[in-house]
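To assess whether ligand presence alters the predicted conformation, the chain was also submitted together with iron/sulfur cluster. Input:
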Amino acid sequence: WPLIARDVEAIEQLKRARNAVVLGHNYQAPEIFNTVADIVGDSLALAREAVNVDADVIVMAGVHFMAETAKLLNPSKTVLMPDMRAGCSLADSITAADIRLLRQHYPGVPVVTYVNTSAEVKAESDYCCTSGNAVKVVRAVAREWGVNRILMLPDEYLAQNVQKLVPEIELIAWKGHCEVHERFTPQDIRDLREAHPGIVVLAHPECPPEVVAEADYAGSTAGMADYVRDEKPARVVLITECSMADNVAVGHPEIDFVRPCNLCPHMRRITLPNIRRALETMTHAVEIDPAIADRARRAVERMLAIS
Ligand code: 13P
Ligand code: SF4
């Protein structure tokens, strides 16, 4: 604790000196999430809040695509990544060239890409979506474009989970997976139910559809947090990255959280010491080629307009 307190104090001073804010994703470790993070939420909330930030500097306590999204929406601000290696298996699963090839193969079919992608991939896309608004976005795109086929990339499982909710639209998927959520199995859920009778199971839609089918509810990280707040289950398990339960549990001491643990190695690269270093040295600033940024921003802004 003394070490954590020293870093937290230094970061708070640096935030004031630099006119900086820290945006923290729900998967950040509790010592970041509950201390220096000024704004916390799911990918959608962080993108929305990034538009309204009234500071010169944004530090992203999250992964690289989140920092790029914040930069796209705030080109004049400095956006810092405490560790540039904090990537994402989904973002790594598809390139801009892949999208160009898919477009040749499916002429006229709109492309909706998950926010967990690089700016180059977003630039080749018509719309972005997050797990919190994917259903809304694909329905709006089908309506606005007058189509019943959409390329939904790159998360195969998200596309399959959304597909169940929009049977009237054909979603064409890619083979990208989240390395954290793909590890959960339906048997894990059955074992949890047997070990903890009456447990409520909440799953992230990046999980395989067979896992989501075993859950009581599927939704984004914010959706899961809202479910816990509103429904107040006596005992619950969040089938997602394990820091999420640690963070939600802080506000609900009355609820029994069962915590299987799958950590995201990319999220774990962000630490209090490297947030402090980012603010001390003003590194690593995220830069996006303006020609790419303009096209990528369009896809993100179209998403924000829908949701
Ligand atoms: P959400 O917070 O948007 O649900 O995203 C989950 C995720 O895996 C982000 O990396
Ligand atoms: Fe990417 Fe999965 Fe980690 Fe989120 S949890 S950053 S989707 S690898």
